[in-house]
Structure prediction request, 746 residues.
Amino acid sequence: MPVDEHREGTGAPFRTDALRGLRTPVLDQLSEAVLVLGRRDDDWHAVLVNAVAARLTGLERQDLLGPRSRVRDALGLDDDGAAAVAAALAGHASGSLTLAARRADGRTYWAGIQLAPLRLAEVEQELWSAVVRDVSEEVANAQAQQGLLEAERRARVGLSLVARVSDLLQEADSADVLRAIADMLIRQAVAWCAFVIVGRNLRVAEGIDDDPPPMHPTAYRFERTASDPVLDLLRGAAMRTVRLDPEVPAVEGTLTADLLALVAPHLRRLRDARAEVLVLPVLGRQRTLGLLVALPRRDLDGVALQSSGAADAAPSLHDEFGTVLELTARRVGMAMDNAQLYAREHALAETLQRAMLPEQDDVPGLDVWTYYAPNAEHAQVGGDWYDVVNLDEDRVAVVIGDVVGHDVEAAAAMGQLRSVVRAYAAELVDPGTVLGRVDALVAGMRIPRSASLVYATLTPAAEGAWDMAYSRAGHLPPLLVREGTVTALDGAHGTLIGFGLAARGTASARLEPGDVLVLYTDGLLERRDRPMRAGLEALRDLCARVHAPDAAGVGEELLQLADAAEDDVALVVIRVPGGSEGEVDVAAPRRRRWQLPVDAASIGRARHAVRRACAAWGIEDVAAAELVISELTANAVMHGWGRIGLRLQDTGDGLRIEVEDANPAPPITRERSTGRVGGFGMHIVDRLADWGWRPTPSGKVVWARLRSQAGATSGGATSAASTQERPSGDATEDDGGGPGDEVGAS
Prediction:
């Protein structure tokens, strides 16, 4: 088929004889559209075409070579497409393009164009071949595949955001965990967002509150007839998203109006914020705990979810936007509900634990020191216990027991046994009879754990001695230490509590002045790497070597055996004052510790403890130490909770006193005022000691180191040492002079 050589009106510079070599029927035999392009009038025109090109474009061949011979006209390209072809031809190298094209009848398609230069010796002009295919189906498939990949990528990034939220919530006790989650969403998904708590007023929550304020009906009346979609969301306890238009004013006094007022400043300052407010409920198990409020970006369809640390922008959020916010609200709600549930259970457990903690009365005429440490994690009590109780003016009861195990069930069994023993001890005199009655009652109580114990009574005798009567129920024997000789009080032995079929016996012993009585549980001795017998021998040897002049000093040395204890430890040391003091061991630890209840009597016990410690260590300035420890203990009694930990240490350059309580609130000092009673206690302490405070995992410690007499009279300026443990920016603790007055600490 001859090629059309029509050039009329075109001014074509091509010589017909030069192009004759291209005029071959082979061109029309090709299955793809082919155009030969030549440059004329600073533009590219079709100089040869085949029949397939005419069918593809919808133009006649003479039109393709005539007035519509320009490439953009022949293929129906827009400005960008024509520019792309021109740029490719100007590069003088083969290439391919995919461009949007339009047929003569107006239908659009995707044109795949392959360009290659033609080099013919007989043709002086620059020629190019353009092979054109309709690739619309391939482009549609590629776009569909790309869409699937984009959707998958968006889903992955959305899941990574939700996973990051879960990671942050692992530290739910952090003070700013909700702020951190909101900041992450602002960086990666929204223009602004926050978690809002509804109480008397709306407030933005920084962290998870263990005890959030309740919503007050007086603030947002449930019977309100005005439209209040946010209040409906709060009451509905179902996951859904409320969309608010900030341009539409809400009824004044409604929760919706208050929320829009809270969001309004952020809408004004954020240029990329869309004029829409998204509100989602933060759901707990039974009620809505708060709200997640978000401002989407203006180009919501182009919001980028960026992977952490990724340099390239991730795909747009689209449908994942709402999913991410919803999953975030659900996870935060569950974390808040768990935190509040844990706080309630923890408060209940602490109340029960405090009721079951061991007690020690102050016994006139005896030096008594007690120690207790449960091995149960996150608990104050386990299965061991002791009691030192004044039954009457002439009789003291001492109990030490051990319930098998150190879990909650063991603690519950301990509480039951302790109550039973104390009840019978108040009524009966003979220890064997007491344990016999306990056996009979416990057998019908179905206590799930077995237990061992020692019950003893002490009554004063002549010349400062004490008579001891005791009975044992499967427990290790108490040790009597007299002038370096250790005797195991192993009489009146019987089976474990609840298994006593025969009558319980009672044994007796006499405690002379200077004697030390040691009662203990197996947690002091038991180790995986040694048998119990070896542990008992180690305790006997250590008791024989102890020469401390006070019960607390004896106890401190015996606690060397309790390092890395594997079970609960209970220890009672009773020393009868008087006797031969012997030679004081200068290598003995010069530290003491006590556990005191939150009771006013603990202030007197603390003064008594510091007097004995100062006497044992030869410290003469006892009055100043008594005054300091009275003020610190009074503060702990009035404003703390839990147990009070009292520690003394002779550091070599002064007596260091530490008082610990479970109130974590930092102390605050009140300024002096002559017009009020109290408030001067810590100012007095400041005159006598360098002091400060430090937080602990369970509360705080207030410490003081007594100055020398010269330093105490030099004006009382607090040295640098008094601030070394105070967090910067916090004030010191004030005490009310008399019973203590720690303002703001409770």
